[in-house]
Specification:
Helix content is 33%, strand content 29%. By secondary structure, it is α/β, with parallel strands linked by helices.
């Protein structure tokens, strides 16, 4: 996958940790149907979607274009694999999709995201391990906490970065 997003909310009376993963692809945007054309969506995307879905049902394909007319669209990986051998930029045009910002809205509203894949990956310092374990290229950690938890988290983050800094200095 190209992107892994971990959400960690640690508030009084409310604690949740969950994530989603995504594969990014590019297509040309058209003003007519089909909405997308010519891009890098090929049959190998089916295999990538299957691999992501073996990790979590919260798997998506993010399609970006060369202009703002189509915006960045997000497709559930389960929708993409339904295309089977007819997969292309134009064939995904009729599938269910949402705008990129809607994916994050759904994550924050607890409408999407998988709490199972984040077990053991609960802090910003765990992001690197999460990315390596699931072979994800880029990651984003979204953390929310109360003032008390925030101070403790800042202390842990500082401790982690100081440890990383001293490792580099020893080399």
């Amino acid at each position: 996958a190209d992107l892994g997003v971990l959400l960690s909310a640690n508030l009084p009376g409310y604690v949740i940790k969950k994530a989603f993963i995504a594969q990014a692809k590019i297509c040309k945007c058209r003003r007519t149907k089909p909405r997308f054309s010519n891009g890098n969506i090929r049959k190998d995307l089916l295999e990538k979607c299957h691999k992501m879905l073996n990790i979590t049902p919260s798997s998506f394909v993010i399609v970006y274009t060369d202009n703002f007319d189509c915006s960045i669209q997000v497709f559930p990986a389960s929708e993409i694999i339904a295309l089977n051998n007819t997969i292309s930029c134009s064939s995904i045009s009729d599938l269910y999709s949402m705008k990129f910002k809607r994916l994050f809205e759904k994550l924050l509203r607890c409408e999407t995201g998988d709490p199972q894949i984040v077990k053991g990956f609960q802090e910003p310092k765990d992001m690197e391990t999460f990315l390596k374990e699931y072979k994800i290229k880029h990651g984003l950690f979204l953390g929310f906490s109360s003032e008390k938890e925030k101070q403790e988290e800042i202390r842990r983050i500082d401790e982690y970065y100081n440890m990383q800094k001293s490792k580099k200095e020893k080399k």
